[in-house]
Amino acid sequence: MILIIRRMIVAVAIAVSAICFHTLNLATPVDGKKTNKSCIYCHTKYGSEELTEAGKYYRDKGTLDGYTKRQTSFLLPDS
Predict the structure, then answer these.
(1) pLDDT tens track of the chain, all 79 residues?
(2) In the 8-state DSSP scheme, what is residue 51?
(3) Which residues pair with 43 in a beta bridge?
(4) Distance of alpha carbon 59 from alpha carbon 62, whole angstroms
(5) Contact 59/41 with Cβ under 8 angstroms?
């Protein structure tokens, strides 16, 4: 009986670990090679989980194909 309980605990622990690690969608060097972009193209800084607009696009679509960088202007309009 104790052996069955131990096996069940191990099986549940493995299942929970698999689910947790599967949901962690972390970028890898493979993603960098796939996109030919550096880390900071999709992340705000090295080692950060915060994403740029490109990173959010890649997270949602799984590719950067079709992504166009928005132009932002920091110049104040003439008065």
Answers:
(1) 888 999 989 888 887 776 655 445 566 778 888 888 888 899 998 888 899 999 999 999 999 999 988 765 566 566 5
(2) B
(3) 51
(4) 6
(5) no
Give the closest residue to 27 by CA, choosing from 39, 45, 44, 36: 39
Three-state DSSP state, 24: coil
Q: Could you tell me which residues come within 8 angstroms of residue 36 by beta carbon, excluding any fewer than 6 positions away?
A: none
CB 39 within 8 A of CB 28: no
Residue ranges of domains in the chain? 25-70
CA dihedral sign, ordered 34, 45, 66, 59: positive
